[in-house]
Amino acid sequence: MRSERTHDNRAPAWLKVVVFAVLAFMQFPILMIAIYSFNIEDSAYTFPPPGYTLKWFGRILDRPDVMESIFLSLLTATLASVLAIGLGSLAALAVHRPRFRGHDALNIMFNLPIALPGIITGIALLSSLRLLKLEPGVLTIIIGHTTFCVVIVYNNVIARLRRLPASLVEASMDLGADGFTTFRRITLPGISTAVLAGGILAFALSFDEIIVTTFTAGAQRTLPLWLLNQLSKPREMPITNVVALIVIAVTTLPIIGAYRLTMGTHSTEGASK
Amino acid sequence: MPFVWIVEISHMTALAATQDSPLRPVANALHGHQNIALWLLLGPPLAWFVVFYLLPLFALLGQSVLTFDEFSMTVTNELSFDNFRTIITEPVNFDIFWRTFSMGVAVTIACTILGYPLAYYMARYAGGRTKGLMYVGVMLPMWASYIVKAYAWTVILSKEGVANWLVGGLGLTSVLDTLLAIPWIGGNTLSTSNIGRFLVFVYMWLPFMILPIQASLERIAPNLLLASGDLGATRTRTFFRVTLPLSAPGIAAGSIFTFCLTFGDYIIPTLVGPSGDFLGAVVYKYQGAVGNMPLAAALTLIPVLVVSAWLWLAKKLGAFDAL
Prior knowledge:
By secondary structure, chain A is mostly helical. Chain A has eleven helices and no strands. Chain A has a domain at 63-231: MetI-like fold (Orthogonal Bundle), CATH 1.10.3720.10. The radius of gyration of chain A is 23 Å and the shape is globular. Chain B has 17 helices and two strands.
């Protein structure tokens, strides 16, 4: 496809070196966390670690604070991503409809929560929750998370809708299907993997979110908040590393799944405008 | 492959047509009233966003003109523009703004320089398995938890940490000390210097720069490069005259993330670098520890304005087509 007679198809050596160095830099901190979670020493940053052990992995089961945070994060991330799947897909289907007034404004509005700094979303939410007399807690965490998770689903679905050839819908209608049938048989199968991928990404984002959560959590402590708290008041450092490793696993493994779901859809026919 | 696909699609379409749903009258009615259909779809997400996002934002804006009583430490409903006057007249606020802004710009530039070669390699040379692995290599740190990455860097940059161990092992301690001695960017140690903070920010947002650039590079038609070559341009010239300009929307899109995320962040500035002089950290302090919500609200207008301006600029450069 990319055959170039005048251009060499092999990368220059310096480029390979740079690429390798950048990729190594990007994996480095994650590798460090992994190494430190096997650290035998209780409370030191010393590198290299004096010895390695597996005991910290078992120890987290005895820490109710850790287990509660894990449970809370799983709960809020699940509910927020389910809500986001519903709201984000509806929003994408609406905005994708033939041009109407306010089209661009809506697109910007649904993207605002990731464009504006999290601290603004957080403060704004907190102050209006106070006005609404809502106590910060599990419910308010879910509300906050859903709001920025909608963006992820919305963007995934609308990108897919743009790539679905409009001719399919037209053909379906021409052949006599009504709007619902066309949606169920054509549009829905077309966007389903994008919806799912968006939902998975939303889950990972919610599981990991900290800035909005600091404002809406009240006394509740999600896993990222627990981690932040450990930075100022560390108790058994290696446990923190083990939890950090768990958080990485919970957020990145689904991402690879989401990537596989959307893989290949970039090169479908009619993808390029 | 496309042929099979077309057959499959037409099969689906035919199936769709033959199965008449009992909801057909409703569907037809909706088809005749496109506005109702639109509102049915738009209603729930719009309602959610109005209640939980737009109204809070406007409420925040409204609070910025309230007054904070320094003596009773409470907010009164007296309307004034004092908060804005305070922001503009206090030189320390200008310092904070400038420091945050220049960090955002520096991080954006560094991410472009580091990210471009990788994006270029992924788009031009990597194929199949290599490309898949590189995607994972970019997405793993992108999606690995923000707080975990921030935490990892506090460990890496600490005095006994791996950064100093590496620098010592390579015999570069004196180089690092010289760097840290530079005013403005230096500091006592790596973890309390602007160099350290910059490094963490670059690490954090680098993947957000790589992916849009890579996407925009993928979209460049190969025959443009061929044409450039046929017309006698060298590889370097083709790169600077064709490839780089055509990937500018990708860079602009990436800069939305690198700049805006740096500008609004407050966790990294509190964990790494000189203390308490970053816009986000100051806003956080005013609304939390001090309880001066009106001033915090007024201060949040700065990122709103700067980020809006940046988005506008990025849109001009075609960033939204590249996303």
